[in-house]
Amino acid sequence: MVVFDKPHALNDMSMHYCPGCTHGIIHRLVAEVMDELGIEGRTIGIAPVGCSVMAYNYFNCDMIEAAHGRAPAVATGVKRADPENNIVFTYQGDGDLASIGMAETVHAAARNENITVIFVNNAIYGMTGGQMAPTSLPGQITQTSPYGRDVNHCGYPIRVCEMLSQLEGPEYLERVTVNSVKQVRNAKKAIKKAFQNQLDGKGFSLIEVVSSCPTNWGLTPQAALKWIDEKMLPYYPLGVYKDRSAGEEK
After folding, report:
1. How big is the CA angle at 24 (ends 18 and 28), to the nearest 5 degrees?
2. Helix axis angle, 71-81 relative to 102-110, nearest 10°?
3. How many whole angstroms separate alpha carbon 52 and alpha carbon 49?
4. In this predicted model, what pLDDT tens digit does every residue of 56-115 receive, in sequence order?
5. Between β-strands 239-243 and 248-249, what pairing exists: parallel, antiparallel or unpaired?
6. Hey, what CATH class is 23-249 in?
7. Could you state, in order of their start, the residue ranges of all structural domains in the chain?
8. Pair 126, 93: CB distance under 8 Å
9. How far apart are CA 42 and CA 246, in angstroms?
10. How far out from the chain centre does Cα 59 lie?
């Protein structure tokens, strides 16, 4: 009896991510959801600049490369071009989505564009060497904050789900993580709901995945998963921040 198999929507190839990086887990969850919903042939993914810039190599669905931060704008155009058939998702990091792409994120959410956003929050710029990101924690040491993030000089981290929940537009906002088996299962449920919302025509869904970056955090893979629990989740609490169909809102 087969109890475990590679999703068809995921290519059979080695990924470029660092050891212990959780991008691979999130890729698999997205691919499993595509398989289970039977939408691989209709799905178009948008991969902008960041660690996931080569995601087009890993997914079997059509992929489009977007300029840094512009994935929601590209996704809007792709979805509106054929709204009945195209299933569109963006796959974005925190430096991309919450910094240079913040305007696109906010306005796509405000318009309730019928797209799915997968937002990977590892509190650092991963691809470019570990600089401070909009989501870096207070006091967090990075390449550009060697003495720790000083909120008096750099301001406070941006909590994307909390911020977008104040808009009327978004259909569904949830923050999950993938640092344990239980949390991986919860993350998959959230991702599947976000894609199902799009199939049902409900509108903008964003899943924020609190993730690890062992290389730029300067930690082992095991310690990085623990750091998520000890440092990240107290500042970025898990949960549903908006679900209009269920009448839930934090």
Report:
1. 170
2. 40
3. 7
4. 999 999 999 999 999 999 999 999 999 999 999 999 999 999 999 999 999 999 999 999
5. antiparallel
6. alpha beta
7. 23-249
8. yes
9. 27
10. 15
